[in-house]
Amino acid sequence: MNTPHSAAPGRPPHRMDPAGGCPHAANARLLAEGAVTPVILPGEIEGMAVLGHDALRDFLSHPDVAKGAQHFTALTEGRIPDGWPLRTFATVPGMTTADGADHRRLRALVSSAFTARRVEELRPRVEAVTAGLLDGLAEAARAGGGVADLRRHYALPLPLGVICELLGVDPAHQDRLHHLSSLVVATDTEPARAVAANRELVELLASIAGDKARAPGDDLTSALLAARDDGGDRLSQPELIGTLLLMIIAGHETTLNLVTNAVRALCGHREQLALVLEGRAAWADVVEETLRWDSPVSYFPFRYPTRDLTVDGTLIPQGTPVLAGYSAAGRDAKAHGPDADRFDITRGTATKHLSLGHGPHYCLGAPLARMEAAIALEALFTRFPDLDLAVLDSELTRHAGFVGNSVRTLPVRPTP
């Protein structure tokens, strides 16, 4: 990465499909042409995507790349409408749109809840929740003629329940929080509906915070409220709501997709499942290879060069919204070898993946996501070693949008 010399000539922009779909075929085609591609975002907004592993790693940690919305040229020029489906990613107040000292301040307020030690203390609770959900999955299968939606009955309620418990959120709010957050992260949500979903989500989070202000507890929301009220300079009200929104969405959507994708991968690669069931590989290996091979986040918005940059020979002008192409980087043959598109839990280089980020914005909840996924997979296949998909993988309906990468439902047969 250096001072710009020239843009890559003649490369047509890739039109991002708001409806999503499996990204891997398009990623392979784009990667064959280079590590960076121009893209057309919803609403005919011009952007870029960094796809190659090495180029993305360097870009994510570059000192002249920012997250703050004030660096988004089209936004500051008033060309981004309120109902633009990616607007929340760009504008929500909080650590995902903060840089420098502001980012460090906001990250420090919640980082203590996600240290390796604090996460390990959650292990017994995660194991207990998982056991209860397996009972529910078995019951759902009995009621459904032997078939149950693993995503709905298992992969979703585990991370959503854990993050809501950390935040002190009443379980009664969980379904609504998931519904609204799924609308917010989808890239095909109709503008008026996107505006309404954002408004309702902010109102619901403000109501949750208000309840905690009146009756504080031993939870992260109460701790954030105390920081907000401690002199007023540690956390503003919009930052409080933005932080809660980030914790809830990032705290369950990524792990939901990770568990779903791992189960799909193991069901489609029974020899890999046999390795781990026989103790010749670890569940942590399954988690890391799934993160690399089928990243739970495909294209994450946004970063902006604060000056013109050339990345792998392609000019990215200052103020351009740039997508982090995690799903493409995970299968980059230059980083992972000629068999990068093969699912292999014995792959020694799997830990090189970037699917949980890199640099100052590396995923704060990575230890929790890894632990939840490993526990969920081990418990699931220990109880149901012959579990398999109830339909062909090719028949599964893909996740809405190009940010999250998974399927909408996962019907399985959990045979004891």
From TrEMBL:
Q: Does the keyword Transmembrane helix apply?
A: no
What GO molecular function annotations does the UniProt record carry, in alphabetical order?
A: heme binding; iron ion binding; monooxygenase activity; oxidoreductase activity, acting on paired donors, with incorporation or reduction of molecular oxygen
> Gene3D superfamilies, from UniProt?
Cytochrome P450 (1.10.630.10)
Q: Which CDD domains does the record match to this protein? A: CYP107-like
Instruction: Establish whether keyword Metal-binding is in the entry.
Output: yes
Region (Disordered) location: 1-22
One Pfam assignment: p450
Record keywords, A-Z: Heme, Iron, Metal-binding, Monooxygenase, Oxidoreductase
Q: Which family does it belong to?
A: Belongs to the cytochrome P450 family.
Q: What is this protein called?
A: Cytochrome P450
Give the source species: Streptomyces gardneri
